[in-house]
Specification:
The protein has ten helices and seven strands. It has a single domain, classed as Rossmann fold (3-Layer(aba) Sandwich). It is an alpha/beta fold.
Length: 253
């Protein structure tokens, strides 16, 4: 049954993440906790399906203020497929060197900030631009992606580097290079990609660790509550408090 094959593939990746990446996740969480405690940001960036872990972490129930999503609409998850903002344009744009430099001009950064990058392959130019520019601005760069599998791939950037070469801390999502993981009879291409599940797994392992670090330091977290639970009369107030804190911080960006 192909459904169980895919499920087993995801379980295997989660187990490998647990067995090999806890130390790096702890390091990444420590750096991010320092940025959030100082009143600054963990900036998050990715392209295509690598924007999904960014959308998953903030804003959403159980997430908290401190993560600043930098999602460019032309590089985000696309639903038109063809025509305006279609697949052809996306594949072209993520490979345009210099585009990431222009994206960075739209924000204000601080050396206390962290840049958290998501890229399955680590070889496309926009992500590498962002990583290099972040280093120039003194930020710590953290990259999540299939780092081990990417060793077989050649970067498209003139620097000769992938984001995994540039990053200060790497968390390997342990996903295969081709992403799709299930063989289908009479077809050359596999189905059942696993990178999104790997990204989301590492994201919440990291964010829960950040929350643990900050709570142990006595830092108040502005958490987005579930505002659909009957009987919780203060949930809306807590949500407004979190959004007010976000607006206060984002004014500096």
């Amino acid at each position: 049954m192909l459904a169980k094959q895919w499920l087993n593939n995801v379980r295997d990746i989660m187990e490998r993440i647990e067995n090999t990446q806890l130390e790096n996740i702890q390091k990444a969480a420590g750096v991010m906790a320092n940025s959030i405690e100082s009143g600054r940001w963990v900036h998050t960036f990715g392209c295509g399906h690598a924007t999904l872990p960014i959308e998953e972490m903030y804003p959403r129930i159980g997430g908290f203020v401190g993560f600043h999503p930098m999602i460019e609409l032309p590089l985000s998850f696309f639903t038109r497929i063809t025509g305006e903002m279609g697949v052809h344009q996306f594949v072209f744009l993520e490979r345009v060197e210099g585009y990431g430099v222009e994206i960075m001009k739209g924000y204000n950064f601080d050396r206390r900030d962290t840049m958290w990058l998501f890229s399955h392959s680590g070889i496309n130019n926009v992500n590498i631009d962002i990583a290099l520019e972040s280093k120039k601005k003194g930020m710590t760069v953290i990259a999540y992606g299939a780092a081990s599998a990417a060793k077989e791939k050649q970067t498209r950037h003139s620097s000769g580097k992938t984001i995994f070469d540039v990053a200060d801390i790497i968390v390997d999502t342990c996903a295969p290079a081709e992403d799709a993981s299930v063989v289908l009879k009479d077809h050359q291409d596999k189905i059942g990609p696993v990178s999104t599940m790997a990204f989301v797994t590492t994201v919440w392992m990291t964010i829960t660790t950040i929350a643990e670090i900050l709570s142990e330091r006595g830092v108040k977290l502005f958490i987005h509550p579930s505002h659909n639970v009957p009987g919780d009369d203060t949930a809306r107030n807590r949500l407004e408090e979190a959004l007010a804190e976000y607006k206060k911080r984002v004014a500096g960006v």
